[in-house]
Amino acid sequence: MRATPMQPGSLCLTDRATASLCPGPSGRWRRVLSWGAFLATVLFVPGCTKPPSPSSLPPPVVLIAEVTASNVPVVIEYIGQLDSPQNVEVRARVEAFVEKILFTEGATVNQGDPLYLLDTKPFLERLEAAKGGLAEARAALNKYEKDVARLRPLAEKRAIPQQDLDNAIASVDVGRANVQTAEARLKSSELDLSYCDVRAPASGRIGAKEVSVGELVGKGQPTLLATISQLDPIWFYGSISEVDYLRGLEVERRFGLRFIDVPLTLILADGSEHAEPGKWVFADRAVDTTTGTLRARAVFPNPGGALRPGMFGRVRMVLRIDRPSLLVPQRAVQELQGKHFVWVVDDAKTAMQRPVKAGVRFGSAWVIDEGLKAGERIIVEGAQKARQGAPVQPMTAEEMAQAAAARQAGAQKPVAKE
């Protein structure tokens, strides 16, 4: 074998810790092997350490609150929309042209006030024709009655056939029927003529006009002319969920209340409150299967007419319950498949999940009917970090604020120079 001279600059692995320059053409491969061994040592040596066990981790910090019992009013609110008790559509009842508009849009009108005047000329002509027809029918009836009076003595003497008298008597009956028909036509013509004078059928506030002067109305169908809405009183329609409805029945049973006797406060879209209190007057017979809600109606006095149909608002109902109630923050109550749970921290700082029976809401709190006692501590924040039977580090809001202030003060303290 021929010896190959070593080239300067090649690496030679002398031991596991150092690499030296070695001559020879195989120095390139030795250099690759040297760096591979070094990287393997760097990458795999830290992997030999074990991660800390869960038991060695500190308990999670959770925010707790104490369950309190107090006699507080229960406030319930429902969202809904206002509507008029009577929205009357004024429509044209005859086919005619509009001659005059006699009302001011948006004004208050009384029952019987004139609103529109339609063209009366065609109806006056029909009225005169109906009068003439009635006069003609009455004249014919008079003739038939005289014929009977003249023929009856002759028939008794057998001077004329009995058939002639019978025909005369039948003519009288036909004449009377013609008179009744003519009278009906006259009344119909008078009624059509009266429809040309369109008046307000009810009192209230009238909306915008739907037609203009010179427009043909009533052709083929009753044309809408205007709408009148009664504003005092005004109705409020809201939807009550099936769950709230059942809870309301339970509250009535337990505390002897009647929701129809509880005064209601109407809160408008800008947050202001209507001055006049209202009350519930109606609940629908069935729950809407598409929404799972029950439609209910409340009535409010509206003497100034400030409330208008279509406005949105909320009704507030305050239940005065003279019995201690347990209040917990709503964020502390977890709901799963229609059931409610809270996390309770015992004296040993152990978290336990407990089912509760939630009642009505009061502001940002929830009234708990069953499952808790006054003085118990519940987790308000950090429940996702709690485990059944596992220890936690409970802290009140005040303690958390103090700890945060201490950390901030430590972070702002200057570091001493060496």
Name a few traits of the molecule.
six-stranded antiparallel beta sheet; alpha+beta; 25 strands; 5 helices; disordered N terminus; nine-stranded mixed beta sheet; 418 residues
How would you describe what is shown here?
The protein has 418 residues and is an alpha+beta fold. It is built from five helices and 25 strands. The strands form five sheets. Strands 3, 4, 19, 20, 21, 22, 23, 24 and 25 form a nine-stranded mixed β-sheet that branches. The protein has a six-stranded antiparallel β-sheet with strand order 15-18-5-14-17-16. Helix 2 (121-156) runs antiparallel to helix 3 (162-195). It is elongated. The model is unreliable at 1-26 and 38-48 (pLDDT under 50).
Query: How many DSSP H or I helices?
Result: 5
The major pleated sheet works out as: 9 strands, mixed
Low-confidence stretches: 1-26, 38-48
Alpha-beta classification: alpha+beta
* Shape annotation: elongated
Helix percentage: 25-40%
Count of strand segments: 25
Strand content bin: 25-35%
What is the straight-line distance between the termini?
A: 66 Å
Radius of gyration: 47 Å
Please write the string of helix (H) and strand (E) elements: EEHEEEEEEEHHEEEEEHEEEEEEEEEEEH
Integer average pLDDT: 83
Outline of this structure?
By secondary structure, this protein is an alpha+beta fold. The protein has helices spanning 27-44, 121-156, 162-195, 242-255, 397-412; strands at residues 11-13, 19-21, 61-66, 68-70, 74-83, 87-91, 96-101, 108-109, 114-118, 197-199, 204-206, 216-217, 224-229, 234-241, 264-268, 279-283, 293-300, 312-319, 325-329, 334-336, 339-345, 351-362, 365-370, 377-381, 393-395. Strands 3, 4, 19, 20, 21, 22, 23, 24 and 25 form a 9-stranded mixed sheet that branches. It has a 6-stranded antiparallel sheet with strand order 15-18-5-14-17-16.
